[in-house]
TrEMBL record:
InterPro entries: Integrase_cat-core, Integrase_H2C2, Retrovirus_Pol_polyprotein, RNaseH-like_sf, RNaseH_sf. Residues 458-468 have a biased composition (Basic residues). Gene3D superfamilies: 1.10.340.70, Ribonuclease H-like superfamily/Ribonuclease H. Residues 443-452 have a biased composition (Acidic residues). Residues 439-468 are annotated as: Disordered. Keywords: Nucleotidyltransferase, RNA-directed DNA polymerase, Transferase. It comes from the Eukaryota. The lineage of its organism: Eukaryota, Sar, Stramenopiles, Oomycota, Peronosporomycetes. This is Reverse transcriptase. GO terms for biological process: DNA integration. GO terms for molecular function: nucleic acid binding; RNA-directed DNA polymerase activity. Residues 129-289 form the Integrase catalytic domain.
Length: 468
């Protein structure tokens, strides 16, 4: 080490530039009798640094071992940059210590896959809007329910995005064939085929059998982006509403009677006035209001005033129904736009670009102490400002940017020295300079230093003879 040679006066092998650099920092270093180099804080340092009298200077060959001990090992505990740096600087020192700790902790794979959630908000991709009943159907299911007395363990949920009407069906499995048969029974035979079916990436929904079934009916499938339940928000919210309602009516100790209430509770949901649409889902589908059992046994008139003439009553009902549909379309457009604007107000530009290395955050598929960040993966394509397509993640290649976290990268400084000949240099201003412009001006008492022949020694401390 050149600094150690400078401190013990072995300076013959040093160049003039090296001697100048070492001379500017030599006051902070000392060499003991065992030929070990120590860093000694000067009076300009803080009081806490002065209490730590001497810190051993570590060579480059041992720096990674020190970082591994104080961060990666069980004694280090994968602490953050600040704590790791404080523990190392209490005993050891090298130039650029904080940057070394920052880089080592930032590139730690275990810390990258366990600590922190993605902070990228990302813009809203918008939402689908239906213009008439059962044009777009959202699907979801409540899995792994207690086995009922009828042998059912799954509850399939269908939601009409225009009216908000919900249809539920209990089943014993969630295979693609069961889903197709349930859709045919609950939706197709009652309301006809839909244009679009919105669902998440459940294997039963994404199977070839269900795709062939939709192709026969002329329906398009619109799967959501991976690991983003907000894209199927209507169905996800209805799952929560249905689950809460079932909890209030299930009486069996083993919860095996849930399927007796699941399908019957949809009447209460479909006959309640929707806050966004302004009407009940039942009326927006049929054009008339149903009567409950209480309304059927007492002389309560219809909630809609109508004429006794059937033709005139039908005309007025259809006219009012068209007005309701136009009003619902307008309200849905405004609600979707307001939610997107509210979300985008919090979104900020993100640095994710094509070629970036990212971690994928999977919070819903990991349990216990499993790592929730997986990867890293390379971004193959940037889709707008809200999604990316991965190049090596082949299962669900398109994900929202809120589910990714950039990998911290610390590029190395160039270490190759560029040696160019004088003939390769081109200085356009050289001809305009005087011939002696490169000669530095000196005072009369200043001379150029050719060689360092001797230097003064330092002090004696309790650690032995110190050369300075």
């Amino acid at each position: 080490m050149g600094l150690k040679k400078y401190l013990i006066e072995e300076i013959r092998d040093l160049t003039q530039e090296e001697a100048r650099v070492f001379g500017s920092i030599a006051t902070n270093y000392e060499v003991d009798q065992l030929d070990l180099l120590f860093y000694c804080p000067t009076s300009k340092e803080t009081a806490a640094d002065r209490d730590k009298l001497m810190r051993l200077v570590m060579p480059e060959t041992l720096q990674q071992d020190i970082l591994h001990h104080y961060h990666t090992s069980l004694q280090g505990g994968h602490q953050g940059v600040g704590r790791t740096y404080d523990r190392i600087r209490d005993h050891f020192h090298w130039r650029g210590l904080y940057k070394s700790v920052q880089r080592y902790v930032g590139e730690c794979v275990d810390c990258g896959t366990v600590k922190g959630r993605p902070r990228i908000q990302g813009e809203s991709p918008g939402n689908l809007q239906a213009t008439y009943p059962f044009q777009i159907i959202a699907m979801d299911h409540i899995p792994s329910l207690p086995r009922s007395f009828k042998g059912n363990t799954e509850l399939l949920v269908f939601v009409d995005l225009f009216t908000g009407s919900v249809i539920t069906k209990a089943s014993a499995s969630r295979s693609a064939q069961t889903i197709a048969e349930t859709y045919e029974e609950c939706v197709f035979l009652r309301f006809g085929a839909s244009e679009v079916i919105r669902h998440d990436r459940e294997p039963g929904f994404m199977s070839d059998f269900f795709k062939s079934f939709n192709k026969i009916l002329g329906q398009r499938q619109r799967a959501t982006m991976a690991y983003r339940p907000q894209a199927n928000g209507s169905a996800e919210r209805m799952v929560q509403t249905t689950t809460r309602a079932l909890k209030m009516y299930v009486e069996d100790l083993d919860q095996r009677d849930w399927d007796e209430y699941a399908e019957r509770l949809t009447f209460a949901i479909n006959t309640a006035r929707d806050r966004i649409r302004g009407e009940t889902p039942f009326y927006m589908i049929h054009g008339w209001d149903p009567r409950s059992t209480l309304e059927a046994v007492i002389p309560v008139g219809s909630t809609r005033k109508h004429d006794r003439d059937p033709r005139r009553w039908r005309y007025q009902m259809q006219k009012y129904y068209q007005q309701v549909r136009e009003q619902v379309n307008q309200r849905l457009r405004e609600a979707i736009a307001d939610r997107a604007d509210t979300h985008n107000d919090l979104a900020r530009p993100h640095p994710v670009e094509s070629g970036s290395r990212v971690w994928l955050y999977l919070d819903r598929v990991c349990e216990g102490y499993a790592k929730k960040l997986h990867g890293p993966f390379r971004v193959a394509e940037k889709i707008g400002e809200h999604a990316i397509a991965g190049s090596t993640y082949s299962i669900f290649p398109v994900v929202h940017v809120s589910k990714i976290k950039l990998v911290q990268e610390f590029p190395d400084r160039p270490v190759t020295r560029l040696n160019g000949s004088e003939g390769d240099r081109v200085d356009f201003d050289e001809a305009l300079l005087p011939e002696d412009s490169w000669i530095q001006d000196r005072d009369p008492d200043e001379y150029e230093e050719e060689q360092i022949s001797d230097m003064r020694t330092g002090k004696r401390t309790r650690y032995g003879r110190i050369y300075r």
